[in-house]
Amino acid sequence: MVLQVPGLYGPRQPLPLLVRPLPGESTGSFVNRLAHANGLGLADFLQRVGQGTGSSSCDAVRVAMYPQCTEMYVNGPGLEYLAVLAGQPAAVLQRALPGLAPRHRLPGDGDAVWKWPWQPSEGHLVRCCTRCAEARGVREPAWWLMPDSWRVCARHSRWCNDSRTQPLDGLSLTKLPEVVEAHLERGRLHRQFGRSGEELFADAFQVAAAWWRTMPTVLRWVHRAWACELEDRSSRAMPLVIYPEAAHLAWLMAEFEQSNIRDTDARTQWLGKAEALMVSWELDVQAGKGPLLDWLHRHRLPADTKAQPATRPRRERLPLALGHSRLASPTGPLEQRSCLS
Question: Helix-strand-coil percent breakdown of the chain, rounded to 5?
Answer without folding.
Answer: 50, 10, 45
